[in-house]
Amino acid sequence: MLSSRGAQWAKVEYLHGKVNVYNPIDNPDGIVSFINAENVFMHDDLAQFINTHNLFDKQCCAYGEGYTGTLRLRTAMAKHLNAQFRPVQAIDPEEVTFAAGVTDLNEVCAMVTCDPERHDSIMLGMPIYGPFAKDLVMRTGVKLEYVAVGDTDQFSPACVAAYEAGFEAAKALGVDIRALIICNPHNPLGKCYPPETLVALLRLCAAKGIHLISDEIYALSVYNRDDRPAEEFTSIRSIDSSGIIDPRQVHVLYGMSKDYGAAGLRLGCVISQNLEFSKATRAICRFSSPSQFSMDLAAKFLEDRAFVTQFLQKSRHRLLQARLLAENLLTQAEIDFHQNGNAGLFIWVDLAAYLPLEEASGDGWATERALCKRFERAGVLIDAGEGYHTPYPGRFRLMFCVEERTLREGIRRSALSLV
User: Fold this and answer.
1) Which of 114, 112, 124 is nearest to 182 (CA)?
2) Quick one: how far is CA 388 from the chain centroid?
């Protein structure tokens, strides 16, 4: 017999065991997955680095300094972020707390900012990273308030009016918004927030007395394009917030999984100037402490500034080439996609014209799910927009960071499913 919550968790889907993955030689009938956002292009470089830096001290076999990141790793990460993010105030190692991935830290942020019994909630724009609905909610009981910006540009200061209205609408229903979470660069749209919009969002959070949590896990996966003006990443920590907001209300999420293709290291961190926030976070992180071996490898990686520089340059080049190939293949297949954005590992595809409305009596969301089933039968997995809280059915997130033959095969199968 399970508890009521245990019974609910037993219904949640999760990865477990080997997957029938497509390989053009060894498994041509396997499944093409466009779901997991991993920078596979850099796995060889990362593995080579690890294989030449895996002489571990015996201290890695012990509990070491605790559960929240070694001083060496926190120092290496702080120096790295100071060089890459250009914060107004240098990040101190004591502001950095590590856990076994940003997924866990999403949950921790919900736990330390919200009391579900008081109807506290977290506000997010639409569309937004779909798994937040699990990360922030599953074990916390916290409710999420999704805000639609309508025809307003989600990345312009004008979007603040929608958040203001969403905040007040929730308040009228007895819901207390305690934090706003943004993805910068954005997941799934691949766009970066400009400084003026970040300032406007900081002002909003200051006025409402809430936290601003900026998920910046794709910060260094921004690739410049020659065919249009390229967006630049601006960290929330690079905004001079003096006179705007108490810096103790602003927190940044970052990690090793995306920019470095190192999801297997299971290392994420939250950066905060709020000592009480950090204390609460560290107390919870004992349940998700990182491996001493992972932390040792990550510290060595981040300390090698020359290697990291060339690593990121190569990564950005590979991301751009893969993005351009994906755009070309989608265009050939007469599939529309979001034209803007030059960050992240994915492209936002518009298949509204192909929704099989006759299969669900005109219900757009039901037909989006029906289209997903078609893709699955064709051996393609792709994230549907419904899970990303997009306001309109027919949008899908396609992860383009796969081997070229896999990308071609996946789009070929998808196109055939639309006929």
Assistant:
1) 124
2) 12
Lookup: tokens for 156: 């312009």
Say if CB 378 and CB 340 are below 8 A apart: no
Residue 369: helix, strand or coil by DSSP? helix
Q: How far is CA 258 from CA 128, 144, 262, 264, in A?
A: 17, 25, 7, 11
pLDDT in tens, 379-401: 999 999 999 999 999 999 999 99
Within 10 angstroms of residue 259's Cβ, the number of other Cβ atoms is 24
**DSSP states of 144-176 as a string?**
EEEE--TTS-TTSGGGHHHHHHHHHHHHHTT-E
**259 Cβ contact list (under 8 Å, min separation 6):** 39, 217, 218, 219, 220, 221, 312, 315
Dist CA 235 CA 90 (whole Å): 13
Q: What does the alpha-carbon distance between residue 208 and residue 206 come to, in Å, rounded to a whole number?
A: 5
Token code pair at residue 289: 């402490």
- Residue 20 CA to residue 376 CA, distance in Å, equals 12
Q: What is the DSSP string of 210-270?
A: -EEEEE-TTTT-B---SSSPPP----GGGS--TTT--GGGEEEEEESTTTTS-GGG--EEE
CA distance 213 to 106: 9
CA distance 319 to 342: 9
Q: 211-215 and 250-255 as β-strands: parallel, antiparallel, unpaired?
A: parallel
79-97: buried (b, 16+ CB within 10 Å) or exposed (e) per residue? bbbeebbebeeebebebbb
Neighbour tally for 164: CB within 10 Å: 14
Encode pLDDT of 12-33 as tens digits.
888 888 889 999 999 999 999 9
Give 55's contacts (C-beta < 8 A, 6+ positions apart): none
